[in-house]
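User: Hey, quick favor. My workstation is busy. Could you predict this chain's structure for me?
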Amino acid sequence: MTLVRILDDLSPHVGVATAVLPFVVAMLLRLVLGKSRLAGVLISLSTAWFALNVFVAPYSPGMQEDLIRLRSFLR
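Assistant: No problem, here it is.
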């Protein structure tokens, strides 16, 4: 069983948390450490991670089923 499959089986909230939590942690480190190179790199990486999660989410099996149901509902 892969990690992606485990996250899909848990809950949609876990997917949101894995996308948002690294950004929140990076912002908290920025507040604690101040304007440092490490904080800037962590914010950049967490922003890229969030964007990747947002763009890849529609391709997960659960999201594909939801999109199909939404299309049939709107017809």
